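Morning F.,

Quick status update on the modeling queue. The single chain you submitted on Monday has been processed. Sequence for confirmation:
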Amino acid sequence: DSIFVETNHSNFLFELPNSHPTTRNTGFLSATILSDDLHAGMISSADASLKSMSVKVETSNVLDTTQIPGILLSFVSKQLQASMDDTMSVAIVNPDLTLSLSPQRRNAGKPRIKVDYKGDKLDAGMGHALTAAVEKLAINATVTYDSDKKELIEQFMPRGNVNVQNAHITMLDMLPYPMDISTLKMECTPRQFIIEKASIKLDKSDFQLSGQLDNILPYFRKDSILRGVFDFNSDNIDIGQLMALTSGMGEEDSLQMVNEPQPATTDTATTVEDPFMVPKGIDFVLRTNIKQATVGNNVFNKIKGDVRVHDGLLVLQDLSLTSPAATMQLTAMYRTPRKNHLYVGFDFHLMQIEISDLLGMIPDLDTLMPMLRSFGGKGEFHIAAETNLDSAYNPKMSTLLGAASISGQDLVLMDGETFSEIAKMLRFNKKAENKVDSLSAEFTIFRKEIDVYPFLLVMDKYKVVVAGQHNLDMNFKYDISIVDSPVPFRITAEVQGNMDKLGYKLAKCKYPDFYRPAYQGKVENKQLQLRQQIRESLVSKVATN
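Structure tokens below.
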């Protein structure tokens, strides 16, 4: 009394045995239902409506329990609508399904399931948490079942392809915003997924993906990690969003949070967002070609290079990128063993960048080389460094090691009053502007100490060599030597202290006439060390996995 079927006109055809079997395994029975309009369901729990429906079933002797039955089901309709318990619903235009069950060729005691489906507009949902709207969907797959296997992927071994056109999917339990798929073409085997083309939009980010995913069975057996190589193209990417979505993937539990000191919180306390934790259990290489990427308030363009995520290690390999401020090259390694103990090593090269933009992009540089704030104009900056970070990405200065260089032509001294006093004292040309003809400096960072190697500063008719050290507490000691000038003597000013209490004294010049400091190559040495470290880290992880 709870099941109902309503139809205005239907035909039912039945044949035993089946005189025209479609396959050699379905000669026992044939049944066909044709209906212009069919409405069926279970009161208060399920409901289904079909228009212009055709269902045909062919079987072997299903009562024979000694072998896997042969079953062939074909279903065609102009429109299907169904719902269950007011929580699940589906509506499909022109569904066309062929489903077959048969014994496996190599193991007749186990089943093989084959699915061939194509259809137009599909709307489906499970409450508000999961919804899908697809313009076109096609699936052709074969699944072999083996109940003796332990892992689900080994029990149901899939092989086939999927083609999706113009899909809009909402998965609130997994994604905070909808995902739009304009195209998805994919082939799968038990060991490999091949993505021929995937065009996806995720809120502010869009990307086109192609490539292959390998090592699938060993990954599910927990014998190895999942590997993939993909071409990743995009018109616009929000890096922060993607990092938030993928942070901590692959962690079976919160091991990285264990024994982490947690800050005290109150109702009015401001909490710091968790840092990006590099996904584990995967080895993905993305060959990127990105037109525009947003990182916080910074916008970068024309990004090309390899991005590798390898079991908790993120490597950016020879990335080239541009911004309104400069053209850049970046190689970096980011490792996240624990939330409050992060590691970053990077080789960052910026060409033709305004020094004010440089200090805005790398605020810590103002602490490492405070003299830069006195200059304006464009220069070339190169830094290779490594440090540990806290959970807010602040460098732990006691671990900071690196080297940097900066060079520029026709720079401007920002402090006009100071320049005027210097120009007056040194008898600069009256028409001289507050310009520095050239600057080329190298410095190294060792924990909290910065060593500035001798560099040449050319201003008007003067050439000055500057060298010294300073600490992060802004206490410093510098030697400023005049090596070429219109005056008939060469002197050195030894300056030390801090900006609040500055002391200096004059001394004999350390350098000969027309002295030019030798290039130290500290950045290149640190650059080679970092790249070697990246190679060793990847090799050790490959050996482990």
